[in-house]
Write a structure and sequence with these properties.
The protein has 338 residues and is mainly α. The protein has helices spanning 2-23, 31-39, 47-82, 94-107, 119-140, 148-172, 177-184, 193-212, 214-220, 224-229, 234-256, 262-274, 278-302, 311-329. The chain is globular and about 65 Å long. The protein starts with a helix and ends in a 9-residue tail after the last helix.
């Protein structure tokens, strides 16, 4: 009964937040008029309102929900697998790989690149994220899933290498520095229906797989040796979980750039509210991440209209104090997990 109530509450809160986000912006559209437009009874309403809703705000808000949700579920998976409360998907080098791919597309010959629904920069970012992720797995070796620290160290090392190449490219392409910086800080300004469909096709299946493997993550979080004793094939299971985590995160970063703290902050907050079961954590964290990023994107585009600030700045301003509060609460326990 409690589980059902929490699920219903998550759906209702997310729906309310989405309606709020599509209502406010540089042009305010009253909620009653939004409902009229969505229901097809929009006679007499300005055409500009309809264009703003259908072409800009609704796809952007849905993209924010999908990106926030998949980043949060990725945080749940990596924290459980690596048994490290400070883990998040970006530690695998996914974000740095995407940033490098996007930077190369920006400074090179974008007319030679194309991608269904993603565009030039998004396609390059997605390819960069996936290439770097596979490189991290190969560099870590066969024992990576038995010794998660090896995988994390490989991810961090390759992430620094990608960042060094990005800085080098920025040094020799100063006219593109502002564009590269804005992308790497995260933005949903280019989100359209094609990107929403593309995100849905990748992030929703990834989330379903992670939720279905929640009990396996529970077992793996106790230690790979004990998991093997309980009948779980730890390396194969961990490989599947991390593959879908990387796929979903790469899709999110390709669309929205690098948006930090969601994969780190949301799982902790949800764990404090609802317990450590990873199957429930994945589902609840998806709603939590979706709600958080929709609100963060709303703030990013309304704090200084008609311009906007990178949404990654908003999540960092929220995430840093959260982690400080969390660390203070756990002072003396030697641990950060809920």
């Amino acid at each position: 009964m409690i589980e059902r109530k929490l699920s219903i509450a998550g759906i209702l809160v997310l729906a309310a937040v989405i309606l709020l986000a599509v209502s406010y912006g540089s042009v305010h559209i009253p909620l009653s008029n939004i409902i009229s437009i969505l229901s097809g009874h929009s006679e007499g309403l300005p055409e500009t309102w309809k264009l703003i809703l259908w072409r800009i705000r609704i796809p952007r808000t849905l993209a924010a929900a999908l990106v926030g949700g998949v980043l949060a579920t990725g945080g749940v998976a990596t924290q459980g697998l690596f048994r490290n409360p400070l883990s998040e998907p970006y530690l695998l080098g996914i974000s740095s790989g995407a940033a490098l791919g996007a930077t190369i597309a920006i400074v090179a010959a974008p007319s030679l690149l194309s991608g269904a629904g993603l565009g030039v920069i998004g396609t390059a970012a997605f390819l960069g994220a996936m290439i770097v992720t596979f490189t991290v797995f190969i560099a870590a070796g066969k024992g990576a899933f038995k010794l998660p620290s090896t995988l994390l160290l490989s991810g961090i090392a390759i992430a620094f290498l990608c960042q060094a190449v990005i800085w080098l490219l920025m040094t020799y392409n100063r006219d593109q520095v502002e564009r590269i910086t804005f992308w790497t800080l995260g933005s949903l300004s280019s989100a359209g229906w094609s990107k929403v469909l593309w995100l849905s096709a990748i992030t929703i299946p990834s989330t379903i797989v992670l939720a279905s493997m929640g009990r396996v993550i529970d077992v793996l979080s106790t230690g790979y040796d004990s998991a093997h004793g309980l009948g779980v094939r730890p390396q194969r299971s961990a490989a599947v979980i991390l593959a879908f985590t990387a796929l979903g995160t790469a899709a999110a970063v390709a669309v929205a750039g690098s948006i930090g703290f969601i994969g780190l902050m949301v799982p902790h907050a949800v764990r404090l509210l609802g317990g450590p079961s990873h199957r429930k954590l994945v589902i609840r964290s998806w709603f939590g991440g979706a709600i958080l990023l929709v609100l963060a994107d709303l703030a990013a585009r309304t704090v200084n209209p008609p311009g906007e600030i990178p949404v990654g700045i908003v999540t960092a301003l929220l995430g840093a104090p959260f982690l400080l509060i969390l660390a203070r609460r756990k002072k003396g326990e030697g641990r950060l997990d809920g």
